[in-house]
Amino acid sequence: MRRFGRSVLAVALAVAAAIVALPGTASAAPTTVGYDVSYPQCGKSLPRDRAFAVVGVNGGIATRANPCLATQLAWAWQSSGAIANQPRVQLYLNTANPGELLTQVTTWPESGSTAYGTCDGTNSRACSWRYGWERAQNSVTTFFGPAAKAAGVETSPARYAWWLDVETSNTWQSGSAEALARNRAALEGMTSYLLSRGARVGFYSTHQQWAQIAGSVDTGSILTGQPSWLAGATTLTGAKANCSKQALVPGGRVTLTQYVVGNLDRNSSCV
To answer: Could you tell me if 5 and 208 are in contact, meaning their C-beta atoms sit under 8 angstroms apart?
Structure first.
C-alpha cells in the first residue's frame, strides 16, 4: 500500500517475475505480523514469514490493475494464518471521485440506477455513487477475477475481506460540504457493490485523510458499522496503540493497524 503523501511511481516490471522470499528467522512461535503489498513490490523479494497478507488489486489508481496481482495472490495464500480473527488473504482497492474533472474522465458514468436516484452524467451524488459501483465492479471482475484464476487461488469475492484505500493522493472533490457528500457517495457505491458480492468491506485511512475526503458519515449510511484499518504508525508499539483509537465511521471498530519499517508495510491485528 502506498504511504500517505507519497507520489505514485510507475512500475514497468513483468507480471511473471518470480518472487524470491526473504530468509525467515527461526522462532519458537509463528509470527503474528502481516504485510501489505501491491505494484511497487513487483519483482521484489517478499517476506517468507507472515501471518497474513493484504494485496492491492489496483496499480495505484482505481482504473489500473496491479500488474503483479497473480503472483502476489499466490504468495499471499502461503501465509500461515496464525491469527484466527485475521483472514489469511485480504485485498484492497484504490478509490477516487473525479467528478469535478468530467472533461478529463473517460470512465465517468452517464446513466444507471443508484441509491441517490438515476445518474444523468453530471457531477452529482447519484453519478458519484455509480462511479464507485462501476470502479469496484471493474476491479473485481476485470482485474481480480482473471488474476486469481491465473494464480490458481480462490476466485470468489465473498472469500475475502476487501479494504477501500482512502487517500488524498488520489483524485477527490473538495471545497464544500456537497463535495464531501459526493465523495461519500462514491465510497458508498463501492461498498454496495462489494457487499452485493458477499464480500466483507472496511476502510483504510488516517483520521486526518478521512476527514478531508469524506467528512462526517451519517449513521444511516451503508459505510456505518464497517471496520477500520488505520495507517500512520512507524513502529509496532505505535500500531498497537492505534488499535484503541476511534474507528473511521460510526459503529465501526479498528481491527487492523499499519506501521512502516524500511520499505515494507507491516500490519498488526487488533482482534
So the answer is: no
Q: Which three cell numbers stand for residue 161?
A: 475481506
| Listed residue (213, 222, 100) closest to 167, CA to CA | 213
Q: How many CB atoms lie within 10 A of CB 101?
A: 12
Contact 29, 56 (CB under 8 A): no
- What single letter denotes the amino acid at residue 75? W
Q: What is the pLDDT of residues 81-91, one digit of tens each?
A: 999 999 999 99
Closest CA to 109 of 135, 85, 90: 135
pLDDT tens by residue, 204-263: 999 999 999 999 999 999 999 999 999 999 999 999 999 999 999 999 999 999 999 988
Q: By the 8 A CB rule, do 230 and 258 touch? A: yes
- Going by the DSSP 8-state scheme, the letter that residue 65 receives in this structure is B
Distance, in Å, from the CA atom of 156 to the CA atom of 170, rounded to the nearest integer, reads 27
Beta carbons of 243 and 268 less than 8 angstroms apart:
yes
**Pairing label, strands 161-165, 200-205:** parallel
Beta-carbon count within 10 A of 112 CB = 17
- How many helices (H) and strands (E) the chain has is answered by 6, 12
User: What stretch of H or E contains 70?
Assistant: helix 69-76
Find out whether 73 and 89 touch, Cβ atoms under 8 Å: yes
Looking at domain 35-269, its CATH architecture is Alpha-Beta Barrel (3.20)
Query: Which residues, other chains included, contact 211 with Cβ-Cβ below 8 Å and sequence gap of 6+?
Result: none
- Dist. CA 79–CA 269, nearest whole Å: 14
- Distance separating alpha carbons of residues 248 and 226, to the nearest angstrom: 9
